[in-house]
Amino acid sequence: MVTGQTTVLAADVPFPPSVEDFYLPSIVPWGGDGVWFTKITLLLWLSVAILIIFFLVAYRNPKLVPDKKQWLAESVYGFVRNNIAIDMIGKEGVRFAPYLASLFSFIFVMNLWGIIPFAQISPNSHIAFPAMLAVISWVLFIYVGFQRHGIGYLKIALVPPAPWFILPILVPIEFFSNFIVRPFSLAVRLFANMFAGHMLLLVFTLGGFAMINANALLAPISVLSWLMTIALTFLDFAIIALQAYVFTVLTASYIQGSLAEGH
Amino acid sequence: MNLAEVVGSTAAIGYGLAAIGPGVGVGLVFAAYIQSTARQPEAARITQPFLWIGFAVVEVLALLGIAFGFIWAG
Q1: pLDDT in tens, chain A (263 residues)
Q2: Residues of B in contact with A249 (CB under 8 A)
Q3: Every domain of chain A and the residues it spans
Q4: Is residue B42, in this structure, part of any structural domain at all?
Q5: How far apart are CA B14 and CA B68, in angstroms?
Q6: CB pair distance less than 8 Å for A191 and B67
Q7: How far is CA A239 from CA A88, A108, A158, A163, B7, in A?
Q8: B-chain residues within 8 Å CB-CB of A245?
Q9: pTM of structure
Q10: Which chain A residues have any C-beta within 8 angstroms of a chain B C-beta?
C-alpha cells in the first residue's frame, strides 16, 4: 500500500510535523477531494474484519485440547473475563465480559496499526473513534445504574453522604465528574496517547531526514534519531497494550460503581 | 538591534509546565505501589487494577495538555 508519507524521501522534508499529517489523502480516487475512503477508513474496516473472522474461525471447532488459534482467543477472553470483569465488578461481572472483551480486543487492534509497517497510523489518533467508544461505555454504565436502582440511581450517583449544607457544592461537582468528565477523559486519554505516539515517531523519523539534509556536521546524528525511532516503537507498543487495558478497566470500574449499593 | 530573538508557539512552554503536575503524580502513584508491594508482596495482584486506574486518571492531565496545546497553539 502506498502511503501519503512516501514522498518525504529526499530534499524537502516537512519539519516539524503538524496536525496536517494526520489528514491522509483519499485512496479511491487517489489523492482526490472526496476524502471518504482514506487509510483510516481502510484500517477501521480491516480491524473489524480481522476480529470477527479471527474469533469465528478460532471457535468454529472448539476442542478440549485447544490448538493455537483457540488458545489465543481463549486467553484474550479469559484475561478480560477473570482479570478485568470479575476482579473489578465481582461475580456479576461475567455478564459484562463479552462487551469488555470486544472493547479490549477492538481497541488493541485499532491501536496496533500505529506501529505496523505500512499502516503506521492508528485510527484512534482521530478523536471520532475514541469518542464513539466512550459514548457507548457512558450509555452502558448509566443504563446499568438505572436498571439496578431505578430513579434512585441519581441519588447514589449524585448525593454523597455529607452534611446538608455542603451538598449544594458537592452535587454539581459529582454530576460534572460522573457524567461529563468520565466519557470525556476516556475519549481524550485514548486519542491523545495515539496522537502523541504517532507525533513522536514522526518527529524522530522526519528529524533524521531534516538533519541529513541540513549539513555534513549534523548528518551522522540522524542515525541516532532513527535508532531513537526504533526504541520509541517498542515504547509505543507498551502504551498501545496499556491503553487498551486502561480503557477496559475504567469501563469496568464505572459499571461497578453503577451496580454498587450507595457510597 | 535584536540581540536575541525566539520565534515559535508558547504552547510548547505551556505543555512543559502542564507536564510537571502529572509527572509528579504518576511518580507518586508508582512509588506507592512499589512500597505497598515491598511491604506486602501478596497484595501485588490485588492492588494492581488500582495502580492502573490511578495512573490513567493522573496521566490524562498531561494528555489534555497535549490536546489543548494543539488546539490553542494558533
Answers
A1: 344 444 444 456 777 788 888 888 888 777 666 667 888 999 999 999 999 999 999 988 888 888 889 999 999 999 999 999 999 899 999 999 999 999 999 999 999 999 999 888 999 999 999 999 999 999 999 999 999 999 999 998 898 888 999 999 999 999 999 999 999 999 999 999 999 999 999 989 998 888 888 888 888 889 999 999 999 999 999 999 999 999 999 999 999 999 987 65
A2: 49, 52-53, 56
A3: 6-259
A4: yes
A5: 10
A6: yes
A7: 21, 10, 33, 42, 33
A8: 52
A9: 0.88
A10: 19, 84, 87-88, 185, 188-189, 191-193, 195-196, 242, 245-246, 249-250, 253
Q: B53 lies in which domain range?
A: 13-71
Residues of B near A (Cβ–Cβ under 8 Å) read: 49, 52-53, 55-57, 59-60, 63-64, 66-67, 70
- Residue-wise pLDDT tens digits, B15-73: 899 999 999 999 999 999 999 999 999 998 889 888 999 999 899 889 888 888 887 77
Residues in chain A within 8 Å Cβ distance of B49? 84, 87-88, 249, 253
> How close A177 comes to chain B (CA, Å)?
12
Q: How far is CA A96 from the centre of its chain?
A: 19
Nearest residue to A199 via CA among A236, A240, A247: A236
Quick one: B38 exposed, middle or buried, by C-beta within 10 A (0-12, 13-18, 19+)?
A: exposed
- Residue A140's H or E segment, with its range, is helix A128-149
Quote the number of domains for chain B: 1
With respect to residue B56, please indicate whether it lies within any of the assigned structural domains.
yes
Give the C-alpha separation, A219 to A225, whole Å.
10
In this prediction, does ipTM exceed 0.90? no
Inspect the interface and report whether the beta carbons of A246 and B70 lie closer than 8 Å. no
Cβ proximity of B61 and B21 under 8 Å: yes
Cβ-defined contact of A245 to B52 (cutoff 8 Å)? yes
Establish if B49 belongs to a structural domain.
yes
